[in-house]
Amino acid sequence: MDAINLRAIHKAYGERALNDYKTISFFEYYFWYPFVKGMRTVRPLNYMNYNKAEAEVYLRDTIGYRSYARKHGESIFTKLFQNYYLPTRFGYDKRKLHYSSMILSGQLTREAALIKLAEPLYDTEELEADIEYFCKKIRISRSQFDELMNVPIHDYSDFKNWDGLQRFAKRAQGLLQKLMGRKVRIYS
Q1: Cystine design at 160: which of 8, 16, 36, 91 (Cβ 3.0–4.6 Å)?
Q2: How many CB atoms lie within 10 A of CB 88?
Q3: What is the value of pTM for the model shown?
Q4: Alpha-carbon distance 69 to 58, whole Å?
């Protein structure tokens, strides 16, 4: 959502113009659309009861769905990104978020989640095959891939972003709530 951050990172590393890449400005997101246009963000999935096991049974019975061996195994790219790149580069294991949601919804016990988290994210041979496939698809060598995996890590906050503007908007929201004597829940 942070177009300021996107542009700052692109300015530092981008090679082509972002002419056709649509973004939304801070002003549009926090003021124009919610206050002037009266638009609200609705997240329908937050209002649905979801049970993974029931959904998989339904999909299997209706369209012949077969479950992937692991979360985000639907493609080699997402599998490699979620199960290798994020944990290896940033220590970010998305299974923790997924299992936490399942624990909170009563679909998994904490003990079962800990057992699943102890399982390796990738089989060594499968990982090598997926890296080879990925490199072939994006036309880079394995040594280039290894170089990319070892470049210095940057945090988004290393680049200009809208965090300060967002803090200001939150303070203004709090002030507005005090003046009006009621909650203002336009975008938060």
Answers
A1: 8
A2: 13
A3: 0.73
A4: 18
Q: 142, 78, 149, 46: which is closest to 69 by C-alpha? A: 78
- pLDDT tens-place string over residues 10-36: 999 999 999 899 999 999 988 888 888
Convert 8-32 into a string of H (helix), E (strand) and C (coil): HHHHHHCCCCCCCCCCCCHHHHHHH
